[in-house]
Amino acid sequence: MTIASASRIVLNGSATGRVVATEEALSFWGGVDPATGDVIDVHHPLRGVSLTGAILMMPTSRGSCTGSGVLLDLILTGRGPAALVFSEAEDVLTLGALIAAEMFDRPMPVIRLSPENFRRLSQAQSASIESGVITSQSLNTQLPAPALADLQLTEEDRSMLSGADGPGAMQAMRIICAMAAQQGATRLIDVSQGHIDGCIYASPANLTFAETIADLGARVRIPTTMNAISVDRANWERQGIPPSFGAPAARLADAYVRMGCRPTFTCSPYLLDSAPQTGETIAWSESNAVIFANTVLGARTAKHPDFLDLCIALTGRAPESGVYLDINRHARLVIEVETPEPVNDAFWPLIGYLIGKKAPDCIPLVKGLGQARPSRDDLKALCAAFGTTSASPMLHVAGVTPEADGPVHPDAGQVSITVEDMHDAWRLLNDGPADVELVAIGSPHASIEECRALAGALTTALMGRRRHPGVAVIVTAGRQVIDQAQGDGTLAALRQAGVQVFPDLCWCSISEPVFPTRTKAVITNSGKYAHYGPGLSGRAVRLASLSDCVEAAISGRVTPRAAGWTGEALLPV
Questions:
Q1: Is the pLDDT of residue 394 over 50?
Q2: What are phi and psi of 283, to 5 degrees?
Q3: What is 2-142's CATH topology?
Q4: Which residues are catalytic?
Q5: In CATH, what class is 155-325?
Q6: Alpha helices in 105-227 (DSSP H)
Q7: Could you count the other beta carbons within 10 Å of the beta carbon of residue 8?
Q8: Where are the chain's structural domains?
Q9: What is the mean pLDDT of residues 240-245?
Q10: Domains 2-142 and 155-325 alike in fold
C-alpha cells in the first residue's frame, strides 16, 4: 500500500460504490435532479447517469453556488453520491457535505487526490473508502488526515465561537472555521456586505437549513441582499403555483428576511444602489454576481457556496483565501479571441460560454474583445455564461476590466478562440425546433437598459403587425428595475406589447404554471439559460439575439436567416 502524495481527506467518512468518473466539471444546480440523483445537464458527458451511491470523480465543480443545497438534499434523502473525489480545490459541494455532517450527522467523505492517483482511481469500476484508505482494483492508498489550518482567530471570533453571541452565530462560526481549514486559510477577514443565494428553494434542505438557523435567533451583522427566490412572493397563490411548492418557497424567503436580510430578490445585485466599489471586500454568492463583482466592478469576493453565504453574513467574517488574496487574482491562461466585426448582442453570451470552456478551472486573461466595446449589459451576459462552464470566480478582459493590466502567472498557457469555435458553440446552443412558444428574457435579471431595448424593439416590430397568439414573452427583473421601468413608461410599453414582467423569481427558479405549461421550445438571449434551461425545464432552449427573440415573438418561429456576426444560419435555409 502506498501513501498518496498531494492527496488528502477533506471530509471524513466511509463509502463503497461504483466509480463514476468524468473529466468535465458539473454543476449540481441545473445539472443534477434532486428528486432522482440523475444528471440532467444535456451538455454534460454524464447526462442520464445516476449518481446515487456512486463514488463521483471529477476535477472540481462548476456553475451555480446553489449546488451545495442540491447536494445536501441528496444526502438527506439518500439519493446522493457515496463520496466525492476531486483533483483540484472545490468549495461548493464540499460545503454541502460539511453541512450534512456538521448539522445533520450525515457524513459523506470528500477526498482530493493527486493527478496520478486520480487517474488511476478513475479507471476502476468500484472503490471503497474506510479509515482513510481508498481501495480499488487500481489503487490502494492511505490518505493523510484532514488538514487543519492554524487559524488565527480574533477575540471577537473566539467569542462568537464560544456562543457569546448566541447559538446561531456560534453555529455559523463553526462552519466558517471548518471551511477555512479545508481551504488552507490562516485567518478570517472582515467583509462589508453580503448577498444570499441560498434563498432559492432548490430543495427542502434549503428550507431546513435556513429555518434551523433562524429559529436559533440569528441576525445578520452586515448589510445583506437576497438573490432571486423561487416564486413571485406577493402573487404566487393567484398565479396558480401549487401550495406544496409555493408555501415552502415563500417560507424560505421569509426565514432570511426574519434574519435581517434585505428582500431585494434579484440575481443581479450589481444593478442595485448598494453595488460595491472597486477594491471593496464583500461576501457574495450566486455565480454570475460573484464573477461580475470581481471582474467588472473590481470588488473582492470568493464564490461562496450556499449556506456559507449566510454564515458569513451572520458573523461579518470570511476565510481569507482564494481571490481575496492578490496572488490568486492573477491570470493563469491567456485567451486570444478572433473577434469578428461587427458583433451583435448574441456574441457576448456565446463568447462567455466559450471562454469558460477554455478556462474551466483558472482565471483567464482574454484578449481581442476590447475593440468591440462591450457595454455593461454585454459584460453581464458574458460573465453569466462564463459561470456556467467555468469554476473560476472571475476573468480579465484586456482593455476593458479594471485588473486586466495586472500580473500574469509566469507559467500561464495560451489558447485561442476562433470563429469556427463560435460556429460550433452556436450550433450546440441552437439545437431545437423551428417553432417556439416562449421568449425568455432576464437571466440574470434584466437591467433597465435591457427592458427599454426590448420595449423599443417590440414597439417598432409591431407597427403594422400582430404578436403571435401562441408565443408568450416573459421578462424577469429585480424590483428596483421594475420600479424604474414603471416610472419612465417602459413597463407600460412592455405590457402594451403583451409582455409579462415578473419580480422576485428568475429563469433558473421559475416553475409551472408561471412557466407556460404548453411550451415545447424556448428562445432566449441568455447563454446562462440556454445552458441550464433544457435540464431545468425539460424543453428545448435556443440562444439568439434580442432582435431575433422579438421576431420569434411575432412570427412564432426561429427566423431561417443568418444569425448576424456568426454567419451561421439559425435554421437550414
A1: yes
A2: -135, 90
A3: Glucose Oxidase; domain 1 (3.50.30)
A4: 64
A5: alpha beta
A6: 115-122, 155-161, 167-183, 204-214
A7: 17
A8: 2-142, 155-325, 330-426, 431-566
A9: 96
A10: no
